[in-house]
Amino acid sequence: MPLETILNRLHKFKSFVYARVVWSIAGRELEVHIRPRKNSRPVCSACRQPGPVYDHQQSDRRFEFVPVWGVAVFFVYRMRRVDCPTCSRVVVEHVPWGDGKHQTTTTYRWFLANWAKRLSWQEVAVVFHTSWQTVFRSVQFAVRWGIVHDTWDNVVSLGIDEIAWRKGHKYLTLVYQIDEGRKRLLFLAQERTKEALHRFFDLMRPEQIDDLKFIVSDMWQNYLEVVRERAGEAVHILDRFHVMKKLNEAVDQVRRDEARRLNTDGYEPVLNKTRWCLLKRPEHLTDKQTVTLQELLTYNLRTVRAWLLREDFQRFWEYRSAGWAGRFLDEWVTRTMRSRLPPLKKVAQSLRTHRPLLLNWFRAKGSLSAGVVEGFNGKAKLTMKRAYGYRTPEALEVALYHTLAKLPEPTFTHRFW
Ligand SMILES: [Zn+2]
Distance, CA 137 to ligand 1 centroid (Å)? Predict the structure, then answer.
């Protein structure tokens, strides 16, 4: 069965036919020659209206198609020019398998973009004998198509997150839909400024903002303010993941301060690798270390105390009623404010400030699955880690949308992947 017969079955055009398939001159590629159907009129690439043929271009154009059996396949076609009555000028025709500017067919771009969901861009490039750049362009094309054809209707719950990248000097703002049955990235912006989040709400229609019931975020002041301003009707919640993250950072700060202090006091070897858990194993202390266990305890107790306060706060999330959770919170905050552990006091203070937003967690309980934002945070970080080839913020953005946004795709009569 000739290849053109197979193509006619899988990838048919109304106004064009596959004329013949031949080896390229070098014998390494297959060339599928295409010609217009008899009496078909070319379509203007500017206005998409048919018009009379003006002339043919001097040479054939080649468009890369999906390879077969490890052999590269090119569509070869001599473009016509249309004497377009609507545009009142001579314009190159539009062809259904690609657009004039690209050397890859639309189908091949969807093909590469879909593989890029399963493999890294570099791997896709290697497997299909193409360049990283071509894979990137294909993914970018798919993402753009998806964003244009996406709708944000019936979004009820949002999760707002920030992620540091490039070793913490730059931040991304990510907005997720976190509804049961529909969880995906909706929007991302460079920076974590108010403007960044305003841009998201600018893209939402007023009735879509009215649909919002729950918004989950961390304590970043810019987000708190913009949410209050733009979606004040929704219940705004500080979520477990971000609160515990803040507490973890505080515990670690206490530990590092303490380690530094011990270092200065000449106890460096003790805390070098041991951290506070060494306390349980005093036999590991050598004679050379001029420190008594008692001394070590007085130092390390700070880290232990910080850790215990953090552990204790886990209980907050177990409450069923906001009333009891509120009591626990107040008691915990009072206790922590007396702890003489500045990093924890700082978190306690901001938890007190945002008490209503914290207690909103209990108003929304049952409607939100707790781990969604955390899960996305992990996936986004993984995408960034795999992204050694994403040298530009633009490429990183495209990669995150491609992996996390569940963007729509056109319907294909046949999927080649
Ligand atoms: Zn036209």
Answer: 27
Question: What pTM was computed for the model?
Answer: 0.83
16 C-alpha vs ligand 1 centroid, how far in Å? Answer: 19
d(CA 60, CA 77): 5
Give residue 290's pLDDT: 45
Distance (Å) from CA 89 to ligand 1 centroid: 8
List, in sequence order, every residue forming a beta bridge with 101; answer none if it has no partner.
none
Please tell me the distance between residue 341's alpha carbon and the centre of ligand 1 in angstroms: 72
Can you give the pLDDT at residue 262? 76
Calculate how far, in angstroms, residue 60's C-alpha sits from the geometric centre of ligand 1: 22
Residue 79 Cα to ligand 1 middle (Å): 15
Pairwise CA distance, residues 263 & 213, whole Å: 51
CA of 48 to the centre of ligand 1 (A): 6
Q: Which CATH superfamily is domain 157-237+370-404 in?
A: Ribonuclease H-like superfamily/Ribonuclease H (3.30.420.10)
Q: What is the whole-number distance in angstroms between the Cα of residue 275 and the centre of ligand 1?
A: 73
CB-CB contact of 186 with 200 (8 Å): yes
**Residue among 138, 150, 83, 136 nearest 111 (CA):** 138
- The alpha carbon of 43 and the centre of ligand 1 are apart by a number of angstroms equal to 8
Cα 91 to middle of ligand 1, angstroms: 7
Q: Are strands 61-68 and 53-56 parallel, antiparallel or unpaired?
A: unpaired
Position 125, amino acid: A
> Tell me, what's the pLDDT at 81?
95
CA of 86 relative to ligand 1 center, distance in Å: 5
> Ligand 1 center to residue 36 CA distance, Å?
19
Domain layout of the chain by residue ranges: 3-103, 108-149, 157-237+370-404, 240-364
Query: Among 129, 122, 185, which Cα is nearest to 158's?
Result: 185
Distance (Å) of CA 250 to CA 54, 192, 297, 342, 347:
73, 21, 20, 9, 7
Mean pLDDT per 10-residue run, the chain (417 residues)? Answer: 90 94 92 94 95 94 93 95 95 91 92 94 92 93 96 94 80 94 94 95 96 93 95 92 91 86 68 45 50 59 86 92 95 95 96 95 79 90 74 86 95 90
Ligand 1 centroid – CA 87 distance (Å):
4
Query: Residue 394 has what pLDDT?
Result: 86
- Supply 384's token pair: 């960034």
